[in-house]
Structure formats: structure tokens, C-alpha cells
Amino acid sequence: MEPEKGTANSRRKILITGASNGIGKGAALILAQALPPGSELILLCRSSAAGKAVIEVIKRLAPHCSTTLLLCDLTKMGAVKAAITEVTKKYDHLDALFINAGIGYAARRIETEDGMDAHFQVNYLAQFMLTLRLLPLLEKSNFGGRIIFNATHFGQIFWDDMQLQNDWTYEKAIFQSMAAKRMFLRYLHRLYRQIPQSRLSFIGYQVRKTVWSNQLNIIPKTMKMMASLVKLFGGFISVEDSGRDMLPLFLENETLSVEKSGKLITSKKNLFPEIAESNEILDEHAQEKLWQISLELCKDEETRNIATQIKSRTS
């Protein structure tokens, strides 16, 4: 897509979490080139150096697109609250939010200063709070605000040991957070469909192939050798290709976006087929249970207030 003319009715403000690497970086690079002049990308990154490096590339590829670096360490809920405050003070609306940041491979379980498994907090809970706190800004979008969740169809919730203190593996930790995100977006979709004139959409997106990214630099040697072999046979795509695949999700009209809301989709030949969900993810009682647990774990009054306000508006 070529950038449109930068009129007040076409400019967009989009926030991307985990924008310095992988799919988040790919989305940022491709969006910057497609957005009309006057648009702005807000890149939430943990590393200042990595975030600035992406911004430098954007400046070369798309000097018409404004960028803002939002530093935030998602392993610290206090830092997440500070980032939310920064965004809500600076912006009167957002048009899209890409929930993408996450920890991949890890050699051992890490517990955050908030007492949670790092995968659970970074990949899910911190962004649960971020999403809820930014919903009022997304509701003010002229294009139909949309939240796109980087997700896969794997995983389950370990209700009796959600922090995986007793039986941790990085695979379990990653896939539990994926399941939680999908359950969260389904629940939000269900709530907002009961709100008159709601224009928000909540979309789960599974990349069609694994993205070749810097994550491969930290995996064990044997896994890296296997990944290199898989890449040789076309099993990976570039960060740029991942961004091109999902570009329409950010820019398509409100009607098309709302049609995808509440679904887990992927990209295939310029289409977005739906991926069938598991019964656990579709279970409304389980969705409510996770919602309540998440609110408790956030320990944030404003997040709870927004959750209460959303429910009070349902018909």
C-alpha cells in the first residue's frame, strides 16, 4: 500500500509493543511506509538502543512518518503503569494497538519483582493491563479502534499453578500466555458486542510461518542448527514479510475489521482464514475466571475501574 495524502481524516496513531524485534519490528517498518504523512507510530520497547535503531531505519525508509519511543520494562508492573500514564497524558486517541511483546526461549524460570513468572507477566498480564487502560483512547478512533494480538492456537491455562512454580518449561510458559491472550480477546469481543454503537475490534493473529529474528541468537546451539536447517527449506519468513502479511489488519476499513473481531486468524494468499478455537478458550465461564484473576493480579485501581465501567455499559 502506498501512503495516502496526509489529511486529518487519514492520519493514524498506532502503538506497537515489542517493536524492536521480530513481528513487532516488521509491523513497524512496513506500517511506516504505508501510513499517510502525519501519522505516528509509538514503539514500546524495553531497550533504548534497540528501539532507537528501529527508529533510525524508519527515518530512512519513511521520513514522512513520525515515531515515538516509549520505554517500558514489562517485567515491572510499576513501569507499565508509568508507560500508560505517559501515553494517556500525551494522546487524545489511538487508532490501533498491537499486543506483541513477549519472552520466547528461556533456559530457566524467572520470577519478576511482582512475584510472577516472567513469561506470564510479560507475554500476558502486563499487556492485559495496558490494553484495558488504553481502551478509552481506542474508542475515540475515527477508523474503528482495533487491538491485534500476536497469538498462536497452542496452549492451555494451568489453573492450579498459573505461575508454573511446580512444573515450568519455557514451552508451557509461552503457550499458557498465548491461551490467556486468546481468552482475553474473546472476552473483550463478547463484552463490546453488548455495548451499543461499539466500534472496537479484537483480533488474534497467528503468523503464517515462524519469523527469523534476533531470538535465534539466544537459543541453544542444537536448536539454532535445527532452525538454520528449517530456514534452508523455507520454514521461516523475514520480519518484513510478517509485517506485509498483517498490514491490512491495521489499515482496512472498520467493517472488515469488525468482521474479524473475536477470532483467531492467519494469513494465506492475501486472505485471513479463521483458525478453529479450543473448547477451553471458548468457555465463557473460564473467560470470566481469567478476567477476575487478572484484575486481582494487576493490583491497579484504575484498571479495575475501567473493567467495571465496560461491564456497566453492556446492554
Task: Please give a structural write-up.
The chain is an alpha/beta fold and 315 residues long. The protein contains 11 helices and 9 strands. Helices cover 47% and strands 12% of the residues. Helix 5 links the parallel strand 5 (146-150) and strand 6 (201-206).
Helix and strand topology:
Layout: E1 13-17, H1 22-34, E2 40-45, H2 48-61, E3 66-71, H3 77-90, E4 96-99, H4 118-138, E5 146-150, H5 170-192, E6 201-206, E7 210-211, H6 221-232, E8 236-237, H7 239-251, H8 254-260, E9 264-266, H9 279-282, H10 284-298, H11 301-313
Parallel strand pairs: 1-2, 1-4, 2-3, 4-5, 5-6, 6-9, 7-8
In CATH, the homologous superfamily goes by the name NAD(P)-binding Rossmann-like Domain
Q: What is the architecture at the second tier of CATH?
A: 3-Layer(aba) Sandwich
* Category by helix and strand content: alpha/beta
**What do we call the CATH topology?**
Rossmann fold
Helix content range of the residues, please? 40-55%
CA-CA gap between termini? 39 Å
CATH class: Alpha Beta
Shape: globular
Summary of the model, kept short:
The protein contains eleven helices and nine strands. It is an alpha/beta fold and 315 residues long.
